[in-house]
Design goal:
The chain is 76% helix and 0% strand. The two termini are 31 Å apart. By secondary structure, it is mainly α. It has 16 helices and no strands. It is globular.
Length: 420
């Protein structure tokens, strides 16, 4: 048992470096771009390009891994991330950044899929919950650690870009020396919209709309902070607080959803997110004293929505469809994150910085209304027939491969008949 967890911890260490590099780079680019005078719409394209590359990586990276193996593929992905990070520091050009950001999304998807499949190979039915919990903790902690590095560096120099490259390279070491057994080939990723809609229309529409809202904030939140005049350290703290608040609130929101129709909680949290966003849009606070708690409140509501939507979908899905449903919804969320930065960038370009929250409020209002409509059309799953709510890792840090790490995926293994 100790040796098994030792190899898992080595892989989680590599994951930590990879996510810290991703968190630092994703926050550094919009802040530096804002300082360079790049337009808000162009900065929004950074998020769209990353999301497009990430979704493409989920579909095509497994083919590369099958050809060259997990260790070589992960080395290629991590090295590519380091090269791209260094190039963005050397080559300050918006068009180049957009293209490079798409490649970053692709390499991150591939690297995550390798690590997640490796962890899944080492997990057993007895320790799967522990492995999944550790992975979830690492994703949140590492993303926040990477973002907070911006607070202690100078975004006007190339130092933070070099630090990003170093972190990508460090992620290579634990996997290179790990004694973990090489996992099975990566599972093919598919997206069956008709099946997802038949299973749960609210979850399908909800994950797309949540992706739009979260994609807008995740890409342009730092630009909003820079445009209203708060310091770089305060921007990093603001972005981290949103993630922390969302992670902490998943548990109480999930427990409430266990006791009632999850669509009520989904509609309520979406409406609350929209109202907080509209309040920030109308009040236009420019002091960190007000901005930080208000954005934290926004994160506490907005970043619980995805987990509740997935839980609602799984209430309707059969146990053997858990992986397919959850993986499909994650991909759908990814498609939404392509649209959100474009919408947010357009609003911020033509109105004011706080218009970013108008771009998030619109999909949240749409989700609240659609959930309310579906409540009147379909009866809820009886409480005693549901599975308990599970907290999920940060959506931008996982691939459909990570779904197999979820303890609920054990059911699929257990229900598969053995050959005669």
């Amino acid at each position: 048992m100790l040796s098994a967890f030792g190899s898992i911890l080595a892989l989680l260490c590599g994951t930590a470096f990879l996510l810290a590099a991703s968190g630092l780079h994703s926050l550094l680019l919009p802040i530096r771009g804002q300082a360079e005078g790049f337009s808000t719409s162009a900065l929004g394209l950074l998020g769209t390009a990353w999301a497009a590359g990430f979704v493409a990586g989920c579909f095509f990276a497994p083919r590369l891994v099958r050809r060259v193996g997990h260790v070589r593929a992960f080395g290629a992905f991590a090295a590519s991330g380091a090269i791209i990070a260094l190039l963005t520091g050397m080559w300050i050009d918006m068009t180049a950044w957009i293209v490079l950001r798409a490649f970053t999304g692709f390499t991150m998807a591939g690297a995550f899929m390798v690590i997640e499949s490796w962890l899944n190979e080492r997990a057993t039915n007895e320790n799967r919950g522990t492995v999944f919990g550790l992975y979830m903790m690492v994703t949140y902690a590492s993303l926040m650690a990477g973002q907070m590095m911006v607070a202690v560096g100078d975004v006007q120099t190339t130092v933070l870009f070099m630090v990003t490259g170093i972190l990508f390279c460090l992620s290579l070491i634990p996997t290179a020396v790990s004694t973990a057994v090489t996992p099975q080939p990566l599972a093919e990723v598919s997206l069956d919209l008709k099946a997802l809609y038949r299973n749960s229309p609210v979850a399908l529409v909800g994950c797309l709309l949540i992706g739009i809202a979260n994609g807008a904030w995740g890409t342009l939140g730092a630009v909003y902070g820079a445009q209203i005049g708060i310091t770089t350290a305060q921007i990093a703290l603001m972005m981290s607080l949103v993630v922390v608040a969302g992670a902490v609130m998943q548990i109480p929101a999930g427990r409430i959803s266990d006791m009632t129709d999850r669509r009520y909680v989904l509609a309520g949290a979406a409406l609350g997110s929209a109202l907080v966003g509209l309040l920030i849009f109308l009040a236009s606070p420019r002091s960190a004293v007000f901005v930080l708690p208000m954005t934290a409140c926004y994160g506490a509501l907005a970043y619980t929505l995805y987990s509740i939507a997935v839980a609602h979908a799984n209430d309707h899905a059969s146990p053997e469809d858990f992986v397919k449903v959850s993986g499909g919804l994650l991909l759908l969320y990814g498609f939404g994150t392509m649209v959100g930065p474009l919408l947010g960038g357009f609003f911020m370009q033509w109105l004011k910085p706080e218009s970013l929250f108008l771009a998030t409020a619109l999909p949240h209002l749409g989700l609240a209304c659609y959930a309310a409509l579906r409540i009147s059309r379909r009866a809820p799953v009886p409480i005693d027939e549901r599975e308990a709510f599970n907290v999920l890792p940060a959506e931008r840090a996982v691939t459909p491969q990570a779904v197999m790490l979820d303890p609920r995926s054990e059911t699929e293994e257990e229900t598969t008949p053995e050959p005669a």
